[in-house]
Amino acid sequence: MLLPRLLRSANTTSRSFKQIQQIKAQAQNPRSFSSQWRLQQQLAEDDMKHLPDIDPSKLEVTKTITPKELVPNQDLVFGRTFTDHMLSIEWTASQGWLAPRITPYQNLSLDPATCVFHYAFECFEGMKAYKCPKDNSLRLFRPDKNMKRMNGSSARIALPTFDGDALTKLIGEMCKLEERFIPSEKGYSLYLRPTMIGTQRTLGVGPPGSALLYVIASPVGPYYPTGFKAINLEATDYAVRAWPGGVGDKKLGANYAPCIVPQLKAAKRGFHQNLWLFGEEEYITEVGTMNLFVCIKNKETGEKELVTAPLDGTILEGVTRDSVLALARERLEPKGWKVSERYLRMKDIAEAESEGRLIEVFGAGTAAIVAPVRKISWKGQMIDCGLKETEEAGEIALKMKGWIEGIQYGDEDHPWSVKV
Ligand SMILES: *Cc1c(COP(=O)(O)O)cnc(C)c1O
């Protein structure tokens, strides 16, 4: 099965006659599977080199003739309404990335046998565009991080990779076109959803021969319209979100559907979100679609420590997580804080609480920036995360939100804020 495909592939790419003869000779030589696999890898790598990448200069724009009415700011619901246009870029194994197109927002038409519907060839990103009130410039927050992560996700499920700077440039073009959907008030932004799907029409389980990368955009308001609201979590000990060697560190659609039932179960018992634990030791990992931060006082030294789970492949590498860590190292460490990426057990949190050493807990992600946590339910025990009855957020969560928002809206000049 492998051989004819190798030969076909050898004939269709732009190699010299001599190279093709070499590849054919290699392929016809009865060898072990691993050498054939290496050969296929080499062909795939060669193909990547020869086939066109995303080319922003080829962008074709078709503007809508029926612009949507803007939803009043206070009625915006996350991910419910979308802008006038979408960005689409098709890819085929033989032609590479085709010319990018911005078109009116519209339905996709796909054959029921398309591989995304059967084997979950899908990955996505979540990022935002902000309008700076000072000069009305449009800005993206660390888009290079999203592009790198998306390439990591797509490569893991045999979808094509792409030039992240080129896609960022195109997203910028789309943001400019949709500018009227982005208010400049703090808390408002344009949520961007780059998505890639395998589009080959086949029930065969294999690498998709074609793909579609598209970007849709949804205007969003503040996550907490009436100010912070601390959330209560239920620690989930009967199901796991991700495991070593798995794909928990990739933004694959397939990672999210299985999280809904535990989330519903927690909601039924009155909790906003469930907290994912891992292993016998019950290490804390993530909460919903956010990374988790715990502020704790050291038992012996009394030193304050900001702790989050290490990137061991089971944790989504949040852009917000990385930003919180960097800001903490820059602005909290000089004030005596210790910043750690390390394992923390549920038991350690419970112990810190009982000894009065648990200072604060918060989630971190693009949607809310930070989500303060009031209580965690664990094995019938209710852990109080340190907020006063009258408080909705702790000091560190508030500081982080202020610092990150300041950069996102251009109050503070910072290399993380990229003008489009
Ligand atoms: C997207 C996501 C996050 C947060 O990532 P950000 O880049 O900070 O938005 C955290 N955990 C999971 C499971 C996610 O899907």
TrEMBL record:
EC number(s) reported in the record: 2.6.1.42
PROSITE patterns: AA_TRANSFER_CLASS_4
Keywords per UniProt: Amino-acid biosynthesis, Aminotransferase, Branched-chain amino acid biosynthesis, Pyridoxal phosphate, Transferase
Catalytic activity field: L-isoleucine + 2-oxoglutarate = (S)-3-methyl-2-oxopentanoate + L-glutamate; L-leucine + 2-oxoglutarate = 4-methyl-2-oxopentanoate + L-glutamate; L-valine + 2-oxoglutarate = 3-methyl-2-oxobutanoate + L-glutamate
Membership in a protein family: Belongs to the class-IV pyridoxal-phosphate-dependent aminotransferase family.
PANTHER family named among the record's database cross-references: BRANCHED-CHAIN-AMINO-ACID AMINOTRANSFERASE, SUBGROUP IIII AMINOTRANSFERASE
Name assigned to this protein: Branched-chain-amino-acid aminotransferase
